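Sequence in, structure out. Go.
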Amino acid sequence: MTVLTILLLACITFGTRYLFLEGRLPVRLGSNIKLFLSYSGPAVLTAITMPILFVHQHQLDTNIANPYLWGALAAITAAYITANIYWTVGLGILVFAAFSSQALLFV
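Output:
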């Protein structure tokens, strides 16, 4: 059953991507659907990152000493100011590491 599910999902994924990436097929999306799909990237990114930032040991962690939160805030700020992926990732990791090591000192 698991192998059948994986094969079906692979066929669905390949089929949907092939339809829209093959230039010779007459499948085109309307402007409303393109607008609707433009929100899928931020929605998926939010759905992936929010549990990482706020859920630790199966509980909501909104503590001010949460290093994940400070790293994310630093990365968001760097992305807004610099619009450079290297500065964004570097500053986010640096702030996260600083708050993580500081949190380890107080434990």
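Check: The mean pLDDT is 87. The radius of gyration is 20 Å.
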